[in-house]
């Protein structure tokens, strides 16, 4: 018998995830540690959690030393990756929702683009936003500010304001002796002149929506005239690749498109060179509000097969809420003062809430231009409510092993599902847990198949520059 001198102290937030009969994934997210355990080891951990002295056996003694090596026992306190934001915001990045007009009529469009009278942003609205964030960058001694183009339509449709805003931002940066980093979302329906301009000006790259197989792209993302768009978008992609331009591809998957996802991913990997490939199930909002959900077991299975195809071609795909390499309490900028301007110049925290007539506009619009046009006036009650959507404020998420990666997922989607009631999970939660579990198991395999443990990588914990770190 081996004598265990004292009761070891549990020093990590620990999660027990059943895999199959008598096999469990034990995960300590803040220690970046995981291993596969059998029943006796799970029972030992349960006893330690309850403060019970472990039985003095050689197996228990070896297990305890193993757990100490992983910082799960008798280590220093963990530091949850919590940042909070207080007071008036001071953003150094602006996103311009340039227009609600679009040259495509995607069947699943969350914005229902093309069904309402188009709204377009003026140069004056864009300039005011640029003036504001560039001045904030100087005030905070930050050497650059960020400019992004997005919206409920295709940004390039409002080409005049887009290009003049970029020119103005560059001139503003020159005057202030700082730099500007610019990026955009796009559907890829660009002519060669626009492609040339994009390559020359958007150093931050673009996020390009494209659904893979041409027959899928043409069916779900037709032009405003009802024609296929795949040839045009593939031309844009080829031009980007020829210029080694930085871009990512975003693939949206409808329920009836799920069986084609692996082939679509293979097509993208063989015909494009994006820096990243994002795959998301379609949102049940906008034109797709009454369509069948794609947030299913079928999506998970198709994603896994698609990931295998991608890796066979030395690529990776990702789902936005499954990100085991990131430790954060924020899913996106909604909880950390995103500064995005509608065509009217009002301030939204969410890229999906681009218009004041959105059903959830009152929850996400938190600012407006000051009367004299020199500043912005913020509704701190609305902003503070958004800040309280960070994961540490969500009781439903407290017992979830993915909480410090997913960070509570998308607030707008949660409101769409459950309204103003307390967050009680969505069908995306199961997808997130399954794909996050895959990533943890992959890390164990890559580390030799027994356990995984590594210190946090620089930048892997999310510490926004104007947020205050809180360790609880």
TrEMBL record:
- Keyword entries, A-Z: 4Fe-4S, Iron, Iron-sulfur, Metal-binding, S-adenosyl-L-methionine
Is Metal-binding found in the keyword set?
A: yes
Quick one: where's region Disordered? Answer: 452-472
Q: What's the cofactor?
A: [4Fe-4S] cluster
Enumerate the spans annotated as Radical SAM core domain: 88-316
The record's Gene3D superfamilies line, in alphabetical order, gives: Aldolase class I (3.20.20.70)
Query: In what ranges is there compositional bias, type Basic and acidic residues?
Result: 463-472
Alphabetized InterPro entries for the sequence: 4Fe4S-binding_SPASM_dom, Aldolase_TIM, MoaA_NifB_PqqE_Fe-S-bd_CS, rSAM, rSAM_sf, Sulphatase_maturase_rSAM
Cited CDD domains: Radical_SAM
Which GO molecular function annotations are given, in alphabetical order?
A: 4 iron, 4 sulfur cluster binding; metal ion binding; oxidoreductase activity
Q: Name one Pfam family in it.
A: Radical_SAM
Task: From the Swiss-Prot or TrEMBL record, give the protein name.
Answer: Radical SAM additional 4Fe4S-binding SPASM domain-containing protein
Species source reads Candidatus Kentrum sp. LFY
